[in-house]
Design brief:
The protein is built from ten helices and ten strands. The protein is of the alpha/beta class. It is globular, with a radius of gyration of 19 Å.
Length: 262
């Protein structure tokens, strides 16, 4: 696998019972990019992410991460790779019985042999990294707003200083201002930390603002990858309706104005 490719799937198939959701899907994620993954409801976006992460079993195909075929390595190597990944689920998936700080420390306790004092310092640094305060660490998840929940979930995803970050609908449920701030946060962290990001989203504003490339899922496969400009040139029915439809927010016109200014 090329050193420029951090993750590769080839001919990947997965599903539930008799229903095949992914059918021979192939996709590369490049090192250092934010890849936006889009598709209609039921297209398999979350199934793809969960299959890559080993949370759902694949039926066939190959998954390579950091140049290693996941079928050909032992449990110890799997664990090493997993520690280099960060995951933020759609609803945050915080443990309701743990404080914010304890949520962030969960993976630290599982993977690192460090003192409580150091774990506290590391967790607070992650909170500050996502724009929260040290005092927020004592709160329970039930006390958090939607935007704060997203930030804590992101802080937890960053707990082990991952190289490769998976985000499932990071701006869903946020108002436009909060969503824009979260987009800015993701891009800033990606640049500052040198992250590669696999981001499932339906948010056109996020795709416009922070993605380097976009992958479109349909019929169990990736039907198109490329920059936003490539999406706007496509004749694929779903791609055309999504990126040029009534709710596209005039993305094409905004992109053209951006080009003219530059």
């Amino acid at each position: 696998m090329s050193s420029n490719i951090i993750m590769r799937t080839r001919d990947l198939s997965a599903g539930f019972g008799d229903h095949l959701v992914l059918n021979g899907l192939s996709l590369d994620v490049r090192r250092g990019e934010i890849l936006g993954v889009v598709g209609g409801s039921g297209a398999g976006k979350s199934v793809l992410m969960r299959t890559i992460l080993g949370l759902l079993p694949k039926r066939s195909g190959h998954i390579e991460i950091f140049g290693e075929d996941l079928d050909e390595i032992d449990d110890e190597r799997h664990q090493t790779i997993e520690r280099r990944l960060g995951i933020m689920f759609q609803q945050g998936a915080l443990f309701s019985s743990l404080t914010v700080l304890q949520n962030i420390q969960f993976q630290m306790r599982e993977n690192l042999h460090i003192s409580q004092r150091l774990a506290d310092e590391m967790a607070v640094s992650k909170l500050e990294m996502v724009g929260l305060q040290a005092d927020d660490g004592a709160k329970q998840p039930s006390e958090l707003s939607g935007g704060m929940t997203k930030r804590v979930a992101l802080a937890r995803a960053l707990a082990l200083d991952p190289e490769f970050l998976f985000l499932d609908e990071p701006t869903s449920g946020l108002d436009p201002i909060s969503a824009g701030e979260f987009d800015d946060l993701i891009r800033t962290l990606q640049k500052t930390l040198g992250l590669s990001v696999f981001m499932i989203t339906h948010d056109l504003e996020s795709l416009y603002a922070i993605t380097d490339r976009i992958a479109v899922l349909a019929d169990g496969r990736v039907v198109l990858t490329g920059a936003l400009e490539d999406m706007l040139k496509s004749d694929h029915p779903w791609v055309k309706s999504y990126f040029q439809g009534k709710r596209s927010g005039g993305i094409a016109a905004r992109l053209e104005r951006q080009k003219q200014r530059s």
